[in-house]
Design brief:
- It is globular and about 75 Å long.
- The longest helix has 39 residues.
- Helix 6 packs across helix 9.
- 75% of the residues lie in helices and 0% in strands.
- It is built from 10 helices and no strands.
Length: 294
Amino acid sequence: MEIGSSPSNPQASGEPNRPSMAGRPSLAPPPPPPSFFARTSDQVLGFFAHLGVIWSMFLGSIRAGFRRPLEGRAIVKQLESLGVASVGIVVVTSVFIGMVMAVQFAFGLQKFGGLEYTGRVIALSFARELAPTLTAVIVGGRIGSGMAAELGSMAVTEQIDAIRALGADPLKKLVWPRLAASVIVLPVVAAFSLVLGFAGAMAITDLQFDVPSAFFFRSALSAVNMSDFLAGMLKTPFFGGIIALVGCHFGMTTKGGTAGVGNSTTRTVVVISIAILIADFLLTKLGIILWPQT
């Protein structure tokens, strides 16, 4: 090699290798983010898709439930799991909600000299709204999340696919017992909550506001009739159906391993709470239209 000529090997001269840009494809710019209208339309379509799947699950489980065998043992097991295991949370929440409502109403009515009407107001409020709706929201979050977690774990470990492979119907084996148990147990739990909430309100008004328990009880019974009781209790089977269907739907459609199970559980609690409040409004309006005298 002649002196003064440039070396053919670039590493010999200490220069770093610079890869040639020739032949390299140019990177395309990232796509623009979807517009607000596109995101909203996707969410609306997704909502109706979920609603259609839940409705199909409801019809399929009803048809499967009346085919033999009737899954009596599974229903009794779910009754124990959903009802008996929820007694503790029902007792605590009902008693303290009754006490809080009694204190609030008693303080408010005392300003206008209407302390003797506390029992009537609380009894009507609990019978028509507080006992069925709050019980459904609180208990529904517990049992709905349990259903979603249990069925979600079965879904990610392919146990639901194994049930189908064995020729059994997952709607009959998994959904129907939970749906039937929820519809049966929620009216009982709501009635239990009504009694406990009324007892807590009666105790706190007697201790703090010197309203005798006997007078509180008699005035409440004079204001509440059977139509008020039924107006609240007839909502609870619908709430039970919503809890079971939403929990089973999100559980059986879980994907993504343990992270997916957690996501399904969270979505179940949120959707159940919102759906119960919307259903409560619609059922209340329907009851007023059908039975205006109540």
